[in-house]
Structures are given as C-alpha cells and as structure tokens.
Amino acid sequence: MTSHPRVHRPWGAFTDIERGARFKVKRLVVKPGGR
Length: 35
Description:
The protein starts with 5 loop residues before the first strand and ends in a 5-residue tail after the last strand. The protein has strands spanning 6-9, 12-19, 24-30. A three-stranded antiparallel beta sheet has the order 1-2-3, with no helix packed on it. It has no helices and three strands. The mean pLDDT is 90. A hairpin with a 4-residue loop joins strand 2 and strand 3 (24-30). The protein is mainly β.
C-alpha cells in the first residue's frame, strides 16, 4: 500500500499522487482567501 501524506501550507495543502524519474503529479487544494 502506498501512502500519500498531505502537506499543509498557509494557502492550502498538496498531496503527491505519482512520482517518476522526471516528473511528479500533485493534487493541490487551495483555500479561498488563503495566502
């Protein structure tokens, strides 16, 4: 099973979905009015 830890920032959060030798795919969640 692969874990996708969520990283929190003042503007929202992101989760790494997939990673390869030359790419990353992230899911971004942006808070309305966040910095």
